[in-house]
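Structure (tokenized):
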């Protein structure tokens, strides 16, 4: 289904209208334990379950929710299952970035005819709650995009899943929705994937950073931010750049053993409250140099927040042409130094600034050096 959007004085056709991120699915070694971690540490709530008890004999999936953020944790139940290939190679990692659409069949047709490689042909699943249509295409590495059409479904998640209602459900921490997901790709692979999102999915490159923008004394990377027409879905793409030592992207590629999702940014309306709750639950964040805050206001202008709570928690502030944003990054949440999370609060800013890269990279390099990977 195509939609018309007004841009200035011209009408523009969006051949792939997206309504946001439907869910993010992880392939993990132990979904039950991972679900407990995301509930206890990040405040997710139990939503749905699929497994032998629901008629799915070869795997289990736990679905967790917090406001508009849905994550799915999936584990195979035998050593021969094909999902083990992903887990063996990458460790626990993101497999599916699922996108909410009005027509999963049309989304598949539109992207395939523009050059996408098929992952899942369109199919419709039905149960007593209605129907959900799914299709999918490949993107960088072993990551896929699923197109999810659920307008005619009122069950907990989708057919094949049952409502999951354990007694243990810790309080949420204020996470609202997926703001963006960042992919790390190999040397000289950023521009080909930028072209993929432009040609195949109709995204636009709304921001570019080169190795002069994102560098420290030791390492550098380049990044381009891709966004769909309404801005609901943003996919920054990073690649390594030459530096004296190994960059964070190179470290990720080494330990993930390929390209994949580096971090997921989740929005909040009150970053100070959310980060305080996350720290109290054991989530570890990068340590920001204290002198970052000495000239903060001269760099970003006036902000609503007091600086001292930001300094205490290590929250960064940056500005674009439309406003400012507050952001903070966790340390890797798994044993491999791969996946981490960003907590972000937007105060008018629609994209990203350049002011935080040096402080952020120096913090990441401290952790890399501890691991012996810088």
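Design, position by position:
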């Amino acid at each position: 289904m195509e939609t018309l959007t007004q841009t200035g004085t011209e009408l523009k056709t969006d051949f792939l209208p997206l309504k946001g991120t439907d869910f993010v699915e992880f392939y993990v070694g132990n979904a039950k334990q991972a679900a407990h971690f995301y509930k206890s540490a990040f405040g997710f709530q139990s939503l749905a379950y699929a497994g032998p008890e629901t008629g799915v004999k070869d795997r289990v999936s736990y679905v967790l929710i917090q406001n508009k953020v849905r994550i799915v944790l999936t584990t195979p139940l035998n050593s021969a299952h094909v999902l083990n290939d992903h887990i063996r190679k990458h460790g626990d990692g993101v497999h599916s970035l699922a996108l909410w659409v009005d027509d999963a069949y049309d989304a598949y047709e539109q992207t395939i005819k523009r050059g996408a490689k098929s992952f899942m042909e369109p199919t419709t699943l039905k149960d007593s709650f209605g129907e959900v249509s799914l299709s999918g295409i490949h993107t960088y590495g072993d990551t896929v995009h699923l197109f999810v059409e659920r307008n005619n479904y009122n069950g907990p998640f989708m057919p094949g899943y049952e409502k999951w209602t354990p007694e243990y459900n810790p309080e949420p921490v204020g996470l609202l929705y997926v703001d963006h997901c960042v992919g790390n790709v190999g040397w000289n692979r950023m521009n080909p994937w930028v072209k993929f999102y432009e040609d195949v999915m109709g995204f636009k490159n709304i921001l570019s950073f080169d190795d002069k923008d994102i560098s420290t004394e030791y390492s550098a990377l380049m990044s381009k931010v891709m966004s769909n027409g309404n801005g609901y879905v943003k996919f920054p793409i990073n690649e390594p750049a030459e530096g004296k030592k190994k960059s964070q992207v190179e470290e990720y590629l080494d330990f993930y053993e390929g390209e994949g999702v580096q971090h997921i940014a989740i929005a909040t309306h009150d970053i100070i409250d959310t980060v305080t709750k996350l720290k109290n639950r054991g989530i570890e964040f990068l340590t920001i140099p204290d002198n970052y805050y000495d000239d903060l206001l001269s760099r970003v202008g006036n902000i609503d927040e007091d600086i001292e709570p930001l300094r205490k928690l290590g929250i960064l502030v940056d500005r674009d042409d439309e406003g400012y944003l507050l952001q903070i990054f966790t340390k890797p949440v798994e044993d491999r130094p791969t996946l981490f999370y960003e907590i972000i609060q937007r105060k008018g800013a629609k994209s990203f600034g350049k002011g935080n890269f040096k402080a952020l990279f120096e913090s990441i390099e401290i952790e890399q050096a501890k691991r012996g990977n810088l």
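Reviewer-requested clarification: The chain has a mean pLDDT of 91. Residues 178-371 form a domain with the 2,3-Dihydroxybiphenyl 1,2-Dioxygenase; domain 1 fold (CATH 3.10.180.10).
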